[in-house]
Write a structure and sequence with these properties.
The protein is an alpha/beta fold and 332 residues long. The protein is 30% helix and 17% strand. Helix 1 packs parallel to helix 2, helix 2 packs parallel to helix 3 (102-112) and helix 3 (102-112) runs parallel beside helix 5. The protein is globular and about 60 Å long. The protein starts with a strand and ends with a helix.
Length: 332
């Protein structure tokens, strides 16, 4: 098992399949994009699947989520999902995506064994979408969400980030739209993981602001804490139910004490925390011809790194320093 010295056990694996993305969201990367990882540094499909197999069959991982960058850009995605679904015990498999290309791939991914998707959508207004993402692809995202729902990748969860002066007035409209279509909406506080390091705590739209905005139109009742478990989102029953809305307040209400996640970057680096400033190289072990490259050795290295996981990265502290890698190179 992947247990740390604070009594937490990691059962949820986040696997970044690429650092590339076909959007340029203002809170993630600059308009000109980033220098992508050289292809020889990326894990091959076989290497990705081997690490997942070790995690599931030897280390107690029960949930696998594929992320990016934008994971739909990974050519071998459907095959990776299929091989993951064939493992025993079979993990629950999810995908976080910006939705572009999902209309084409939702069906094949469902057939391969994908259970559900999270789709990023910050606005219902095409013009604001273009300002936020610097791309005119709003309808593609809406089509992808609808196709995923129809394909049975349910519940489709929508992730929204509110930005000051752009979409910070849209929380009630987004919730009404999600309820209308049968999607589950989750608002996420903007996190200090942008490549530009332009994040400022003083301008961030926080959980209190989000909830106050929602309550101008809806009655929200907090779900009992026992229902939350290790989930990052605080959930609220909307207007007495059955619909719910979630708020992930990583900055103002960190949930480190119940964290059950471990992460792999697209270039094979193990991260015990989204906000970690250190990594453990599993790619070198994978490509080693010696005893360091055996499944047992890789599992031990993973366990050793997990035991050293800090109780908290200190994101709530005023002097917090964000990691060098941006979100697109870490994986959501």
């Amino acid at each position: 098992m992947l247990t740390d010295t604070h009594g937490r056990t990691a059962t949820d694996l986040r696997v970044s399949l690429t650092d590339r993305c076909n959007l340029r969201c203002t809170y993630c990367m600059p308009e000109e994009g980033l220098d992508w990882l050289p292809r020889p540094e990326l894990l091959s499909d076989d290497e990705v699947c081997r690490l997942i197999r070790i995690a599931v069959t030897r280390l107690g991982i029960r949930d696998v989520r594929f992320t990016g960058g934008e994971p739909l850009l990974r050519r071998g995605l459907v095959g990776i999902v299929e091989r993951t679904a064939a493992l025993t015990p079979r993990p629950h498999i999810a995908l976080t995506t910006n939705g572009i290309g999902l209309a084409r791939l939702a069906g094949p991914l469902k057939e391969a064994g994908l259970n559900r998707v999270n789709v990023s959508l910050d606005t219902l207004r095409p013009d604001i979408f273009t300002q936020l993402t610097r791309r005119n692809r709003h309808q593609n995202v809406l089509d992808g969400i609808a196709t995923a729902h129809q394909a049975g990748l349910q519940p489709v969860k929508i992730n929204a980030v509110l930005m000051p002066g752009l979409n910070d007035d849209e929380a009630p409209d987004l919730l009404a739209w999600a309820i209308q279509h049968g999607y589950e909406l989750r608002f996420i506080e903007q996190m200090p993981l942008d490549a530009q390091h332009g994040w400022q705590r003083t301008t961030m739209i926080d959980a209190e602001h989000i909830l106050a905005s929602l309550r101008t139109r809806f009655t929200l009742t907090p779900e009992p804490a026992v229902h939350r478990g290790t989930a990052p989102a605080e959930r609220f029953v909307v207007n007495g139910g059955p619909h719910r809305v979630g708020v992930i307040a990583s900055v103002t209400r960190p949930f480190c004490r119940t964290c059950d996640r471990t992460r792999l970057t697209a270039d094979g680096q193990l991260r015990t925390c989204l906000f970690a400033t250190t990594e453990t190289d599993l790619r070198a072990a994978l490509r080693s011809a010696g005893t360091d490259g055996t499944d047992d050795a890789i599992a031990r290295r993973w366990q050793h790194a997990t035991r050293a996981k800090a109780l908290s990265p200190g994101i709530a502290e005023v002097d917090y320093q964000q990691p060098k890698r941006p979100m697109s190179a870490i994986g959501g």
